[in-house]
Design brief:
It is built from 4 helices and 44 strands. By secondary structure, it is mainly β. Strand 40 and strand 41 form a beta hairpin. It is rod-shaped and about 140 Å long.
Amino acid sequence: MKYPFICYTNQSIFHGKLDLTPDLLSGNGEIDFLKASLTSKLMKFYQHKFTADTADFSLEAADNSGIAFSTNNMTADVDFEKQMGEFKSNGGGSVVKFPVNEYIAFMDEFKWYMNQDAIELSSDKTQKVETQGKELQFSGAKFISVDPKQDSLQFIAPSARYSLKDFLISAHRVPFIDVADARITPDSGKILIHKSAVMEPLIRAEIIANTVTKYHHIYNADLSITSRKSYSGSGYYDYIDEIKNKKPIYFNNIHVDTTHQTVANTSITDSSHFSLSPNFNYKGNVTLKATAPFLYFDGEARIMHECNELKIAWVRFSSQIDPNNVQIPIVSHPVNETNIPLAASPVLAATDSIHMYGAFLSPVINGKKDVVVVIDSGYLAFDKTSQQYRIGSAEKLIEQSLPGNYVSLDTRRCVLSSEGKMNLGPDYGPVDIQTVGTITDYLVRDSIEAKVMVLLNFFFDDGALEKMATDFSNMGSLKPIDVSKGDVQKNLRQMMGKDQADKLVTQLTLYGTAKKIPKELESSLFFSQLDMHWNNQTRSYVSQGKIGIGSVGNNDQQIV
């Protein structure tokens, strides 16, 4: 046509070729109407509408800033009386472009409501999503950000509405969005996309992190998603302890780290009254890492008991915690939140007023001046059957017959028990003392008892030591100690290690003597059995009962 064809009461202008027959007015070209443009090789014109079998369609922005919506290869039915255009894809989902929003979508059909400046889009196309090596299927259109900074951020939505007034894509029934290693579920299934690919922050969303292990579930999350590899926000996480009590933790800093893994951080105050289990309170920092099965705690824990003789303090630690098996790592010199030294053992107050006091993760009264009898490290745990707090290596907590330091607090009887290598007092100068054994502090009755083995090394004439050993050997009335006793064997294992101790016990049982003094027991004087108690009046350890002498010098005599 030489001149444009104005039609539909001046609502549209056609450019191209028109064919008129007694039955039909058709055209090949472009029709512009209401800030819209449609191009087709075959348009059919009726009284109030026109149709096209194959058409390309675009809409200008309401503020005339450019194209706001466009698509290709659609069947079209535009009705000016109804003020509505209906479009359906000729293929498996046509590409719909949202240039202002910097998004594209693959849609089956959409409806344009002319007087509302709005478009409703829908798709029942099956989309395949791979997760955990499995292929899942969801119905809907795939929306993809074309902003290069967003790394093709995408989601699936069966339906959506696009407002040409404010350039807002409102996607509905969105099942999830995969971002970094996480699967994020919108609370209402609604996603809003503004200009320049800006996604409106999500409210009350859920996070599964990560999509492979699914270790962690965060709920009531307020999130900002900025790309396919980045999101941030806050949300709640349920810490479920060993008796299935839920303890909500509010993570105020959820984000993605440099390895594209979800991380969440928060801090728990003392006033929150948070507990790791019914037996451990906690305050401090908490970190969630999507790749780790348990939360990471960096703060202070505190035990709970009613033994008034012991002061209770917070103890610092950093570790993952399994809520079904709480084991808190304890270093050899633990401290509280203000770096005051703590002890878990009877302690000798080596001041002008020498005395013993009990401690189980309690403050050391005089700092470095006090002597901690047993310095233990490993893990702090609570045994429900015996109602005991225990500190020892992971192996020792399972099998107490193994060598190694070990401390327990019986919360029912208020009895503090320690075993292993001991320091019974201050430095004695040229006299070297090595002590192993058990020491028990009966806190209520203020009584301390010890069953120990002691190696003494000091300068002494070898001949005198040999004569002493001979004299002991010639005392025929003296009997060997009973090496079948559990405490004797345990002490030997502490001295020598399990294998060497068991070998020595076998020799002593079969032959009554050792073939050779083990290297670990070589000393000026070896007390193989020494039972003592602490005397408050004399402020000293006092032996009670018979004393076992394992050897004198290089002589392997075993005598009582």
